[in-house]
Amino acid sequence: MLPSTSPHHAVGELYVAHHSWIVQMLRRKLGNHQQAQDLAQDTFIRLMRQEALPSFREPRAYLATVASRLCLEFFRRRALENAYLESLAAMDPALAPSPETRLLVLETLDALGRVLDGLGAMTREIFLLSQLDGMTYPQIALQVGVSVNVVQKAMLKAYRLCYATVYEE
């Protein structure tokens, strides 16, 4: 990108030059042309939201990285939705939540998935042991094989990411 070129203009140039390529790449991953079109659009929208674009020698590599991340988010969201819908199908229809509640649950699961994806493997394990299994920090430290101080730091990192996901988006 040239220094005098605005980010929006640069994204427009990237769009013209690489849109059809990114759609084809996503179509191969997704197996669906319409979903590939949607994620390709989301790729360029994500670029438009950046305050400044980095200068790159290989714009396709950058676009592929952004699009691949969006693709992973799509698959994660679809897996969460399918798991939730399966649990609803097994539920007594009289006890099933309203469509509004379903949407809120799916949005919450999606946000939680983003938080968990943003954590390293050990931090994610520590967070889940605390939140799902109800283990104390000393118990977690013993199970994971780290100090209580490491557990505290991991939990702080996880809580910060949770806060950022909920309040800074």
When the domains are counted, the total is 2
The averaged pLDDT comes out at 86
Major β-sheet profile: none
**Count the strands?**
0
Radius of gyration: 20 Å
Overall shape: it is globular
Measure the end-to-end span. Answer: 27 Å
**Residue share in helix:** over 70%
Structural class comes to mainly alpha
DSSP helix count? 7
| Order of SSEs | HHHHHHH
Uncertain stretches of 5 or more adjacent residues: none
Beta-strand proportion: under 5%
Secondary structure blueprint with pairings:
Elements: H1 7-30, H2 33-49, H3 59-89, H4 99-117, H5 121-131, H6 137-144, H7 148-167
Helix pairs in contact: 1-2, 1-3, 2-3, 3-4, 4-7, 5-6, 5-7, 6-7
Main traits of this protein?
single chain, 169 residues, mainly alpha, Arc Repressor Mutant, subunit A, 7 helices
Brief overview:
With 169 residues, the chain is mainly α.
What can you see in these coordinates?
The structure is a single chain. The chain is mainly α and 169 residues long. It folds into 2 domains: 1-98, no CATH class; 118-169, Orthogonal Bundle (Arc Repressor Mutant, subunit A). It contains 7 helices and no strands. It has helices spanning 7-30, 33-49, 59-89, 99-117, 121-131, 137-144, 148-167.
